[in-house]
Amino acid sequence: MTTFPKYIPQSDPPLPPWETLPTMYDLPSDNLEEPGLPDYFHFLQPLLLYLTFQPINWNPELVFSAADLNLYYDLQHPLWYKRPDWFGVVGVQKQYQGEDLRLSYVTWQEPANPFVIVELLSPGTEDEDLGNKQNLTDKPPTKWEVYERILRVPYYIVFSRYTDELQAFQLVGGHYEPMNLTDGRLLMPEIGLSLGLWQGSFRDIERLWLRWFTLAGELIPEPTEEAAAATERAMIAEQEARDAKQEAEQAKTKAAQLAERLRQLGVNPDDLEELL
């Protein structure tokens, strides 16, 4: 009787750990007590807003903006705060009392409240950001309530990177009213700027970004764009100088050839210059 070796099934090779361990989608940079804390987009988008927030009718030394800085708003509850993803203020010095970098923005010690606030929607923050969350008794008011009723911020902007939806509200008669877009932008004539969506590359990331424009729709350049534009202008000027030099040399050569031809015909070019 023939005896065959016993068949032992072979198990599949184990999966590498990066295929079984949690991914960044399972481990976001959030805090259960304060949902919606920054991811990388929450770093780049406020940075672009910061770099391009340049109100044309204000002294740059009296323009301040910040991202993820605690905003204290209530004298009766001095520990209550909100943390806007980005906000801009006009009429205040860049440093606190002109002397120190701000640790927070304490409204009762500052000469002006924020002029514009931008919130970037995150999963779990939509209801509060858009004013759909009801305030609980004895709890701090929602962002919407603080921005609208307490600080009376003239412009409140909400942007979602997931849907690329831009929603904007302007304080009218003490209440926020939806703003209409003009040529795809939100006009803020008080500071000579407009805010809109721009498809382009910022810090080598190509996507739809929220950024500042002039009222006429021209981009407010950020420093790397200004440097690139300056380099391009220098290259154009250098090329124009080379072209002008080449044209001058060509004209000089043609003049010399013409003078020689006149001499061959028995005409002195110098005599013609005297007649002219």
From TrEMBL:
Residues 24-198 form the Putative restriction endonuclease domain. Pfam families: Uma2 (PF05685). Residues 227-268 form a coiled coil. The keyword Coiled coil applies. Keywords: Coiled coil. InterPro entries: Uma2. The keyword Coiled coil applies. PANTHER family: SLR1095 PROTEIN (PTHR33352), SLR1612 PROTEIN (PTHR33352:SF3). This is Putative restriction endonuclease domain-containing protein. It comes from Tolypothrix tenuis PCC 7101.
